């Protein structure tokens, strides 16, 4: 094996190592909330769409969620557990109304979102997400968290019992809108094929 080949092989190895660290489970993902066309009041056929969506996305620390909606009609506000339970949107932690609102999940714990358009929170346009700590463990919910969860469970009043949900078809769950970064795996594939070519 000549010197240039050796160098190439070393380069391939380096690339491989780099891409491995990039494509690890730490790659950040961005999720479009709800998997619907837009963030809005839940359709009558899917009153618990945001509850089910929250259960379907494997969010982790560093991920982001985005809300897509017509900015003239809606908003995305992050609220406390208490405000979430009471649907009190008068003093949100964070309010975005640009129509394409990105929230970064940078702290472990439960986060709460709703809309401050009149009546929307009470119609079930609310989302609670559990962000695990860096080690993947969920934090112990506070009393406020428990109360918020209870409020969510009682929403909306017209919701059908779980076993009678007609919309629990498999194709419902793959539109969670995950856009994980693929760069890592592409680099990995490139490095692997380069290494394979060199070994022939
Ligand atoms: C989330 O992070 C992106 C950049 O990564 C930034 O543009 C955006 O403003 C952040 N969102 C919030 C609510 O801070």
UniProtKB/TrEMBL annotation:
<dbReference type="InterPro" id="IPR039391">
    <property type="entry name" value="Phytocyanin-like"/>
</dbReference>
<dbReference type="GO" id="GO:0005886">
    <property type="term" value="C:plasma membrane"/>
</dbReference>
<dbReference type="InterPro" id="IPR003245">
    <property type="entry name" value="Phytocyanin_dom"/>
</dbReference>
<keyword id="KW-0732">Signal</keyword>
<feature type="signal peptide">
    <location>
        <begin position="1"/>
        <end position="27"/>
    </location>
</feature>
<protein>
    <recommendedName>
        <fullName>Phytocyanin domain-containing protein</fullName>
    </recommendedName>
</protein>
<dbReference type="GO" id="GO:0009055">
    <property type="term" value="F:electron transfer activity"/>
</dbReference>
<dbReference type="Pfam" id="PF02298">
    <property type="entry name" value="Cu_bind_like"/>
</dbReference>
<feature type="compositionally biased region" description="Low complexity">
    <location>
        <begin position="160"/>
        <end position="169"/>
    </location>
</feature>
<feature type="region of interest" description="Disordered">
    <location>
        <begin position="160"/>
        <end position="180"/>
    </location>
</feature>
<feature type="domain" description="Phytocyanin">
    <location>
        <begin position="29"/>
        <end position="133"/>
    </location>
</feature>
<dbReference type="InterPro" id="IPR008972">
    <property type="entry name" value="Cupredoxin"/>
</dbReference>
